[in-house]
Amino acid sequence: MRFFPILAVIAGITAMVALVWRLGAAAVLHSLIAIGPFGFASVCLIHTALIALMGLAWWALLPGTRPWAAIWGRFVRDAGSEVLPLSQVGGYVLGTRALALAGVPGTRGAASTIVDVTLEFVGQLVYVGLGLVWLLHLHTEGIAPGLVVLGLAGASVLAVAFIVVQRRGVRYAERIAGILGQGWAERTAAGAAALHNALEAIYRRRGGLWSSFLLHFLCWVLSASEIWAALAFAGQPIPFGSALIIESLVYAMRTAAFVVPNAVGIQEGAYILLGGAFGLNPEMALALSLLKRARDLTIGLPVLAWWQVVEGGRLSRRLSAKRATPPLPTRD
């Protein structure tokens, strides 16, 4: 079972290569060139701003902390999740670790991560619901209205269930934290009881919860501007509402395929399937997916490199302090 993520990544990469081969590497490259460096730069800038805004959504759950700590933690979390292909959970651990190095107690950081991930997921479900409603409004050919309504109802049930489990089933949070930090949260001085108390403290602050949720939902909606801008630079503009539908349903498919790290291969097929319904040729749809992969590397690699510098400096200082400490006297 431990080898499944590796096999899934290999299968996904194989599918990506097969799609490029099937559509023609030259045609896909031509679509990427059509977007151009300014289109790619705009996508990266928009996504960088969205990561910072998601950091502020995390910060809303951590009163008394500095905004930059949560923003930096969010950059590290996303870099770990998108660049390191085998585990999204690893990104959560790195983000929580970044908070700890900024002075946020470990238990509080773990609790805020759990709630932030929950609110982001609920925001995504509302975003998908918005995309489904808009799709129903457009009466897109080939899409059965009954399936749209069923999907919206399912998303609503999932959202309610997720909130209830988080709010009322706090005892499950310890298990989540164990997965999140490989037992790290339990090894803090306060232990599981402090984690429960930290979760309760966050949930008692309704203003912080609503602020975080609304910021996450806003980020989801604004994320559609990335492919909207890219297609405008490529000379194939589509309405923002159409971009919103494509993005919301692509992310829904990514979430459904969570067992495949980074939805490798799944994302590419989703763009081709959904893009075709709005007039995009398969080559351009595949180019959009590859563009977003390149965006993640462009932003994530420097973040991880700087993270290594920070961790390396911290380790170096600890070793220096250890060497500078005189040994305890011993009896003859």
Sheet with most strands:
none
User: Domains counted in the coordinates: how many?
Assistant: 1
Helices and strands, in N-to-C order? Answer: HHHHHHHHHHHH
Q: Rg to the nearest angstrom?
A: 22 Å
Helix content: over 70%
Which percent band covers the strand fraction?
Answer: under 5%
**End-to-end CA span:** 55 Å
SSE class: mainly alpha
What global shape is seen? globular
Number of separate helices: 12
Instruction: Catalogue the unreliable spans.
Output: none
Average pLDDT level:
80
Number of strands: 0
Layout of strands and helices, then pairs:
Blueprint: H1 4-23, H2 25-59, H3 67-83, H4 88-101, H5 106-138, H6 145-168, H7 171-181, H8 191-204, H9 206-233, H10 240-256, H11 266-276, H12 282-324
Helix pairs in contact: 2-3, 2-9, 2-12, 3-4, 3-12, 4-5, 5-6, 5-8, 5-9, 5-10, 9-10, 10-11, 11-12
Keywords for this structure?
about 325 residues, mainly alpha, about 80% helix, globular
What features would you describe in this structure?
The protein has helices spanning 4-23, 25-59, 67-83, 88-101, 106-138, 145-168, 171-181, 191-204, 206-233, 240-256, 266-276, 282-324. With 332 residues, the chain is mainly α.
